[in-house]
Hints:
The chain is mainly alpha-helical.
Amino acid sequence: MALKRIARRSVPDEIYEQLVDDVLTGELTPGSALPAERQLAEALGVSRPTVREAVQRLARAGLVEIRQGGSTTVRDPRRSGGLELLPRLILRGGRLDHSVVRSILETRATLGREVAGLAARRHGPAAGPALTAAVDTLAGRDDPLARQLAALAFWDHLVDAADSIVYRLLFNQLRTVYEPAVAALTGVMDTEVGQPERYRALAAAVVAGDADSAQTRADALLSLAGAEFDNLLHRLEQTP
């Protein structure tokens, strides 16, 4: 476990970031004991209260278990962590983690299908102006990066129309993960966002209150990026 001394004192965020990285990379393995508070403070060059605050944050994130009178044990992030870990997982050493991207695209497709159905059932015609304006903006964009952002705005309106706090919070978290990787995903996503007519057809189904059609169109639309990503991985595997 290669700990680095903290240059700025009394900044538990820096300690937290370092320890999270050690947990996610496996440097700190599930079931292992975290070094004692005193040892961490000495190794990092900070006060014990600062270390304590950082470790408590780790516990709230589900990454360690603090036992009164005992050791602090590292937990398996795959079993105890939350969506807030995704931004750290999607980019590793400046490179996209392909397995994480695939998982996000799969979740996005499932979430989008259900959101579209709810939007059609709950708001239908009321969602029309916002969705139409979003599609018009998308259709007017020539740059692939700008198209991604316009498509994101379309889905933001659709989530509003679904009127589900859980789906809204899930969308917010996935957007937080997705936005830093927008440029890297341009080639994959343009197969989808470059087809505004599909977005227009989805919007029409929602406005008509046709939940089944909205779900079918959302599923077909969102499967495009997933299929392109699988093709990309296949091409990479075939490259000598």
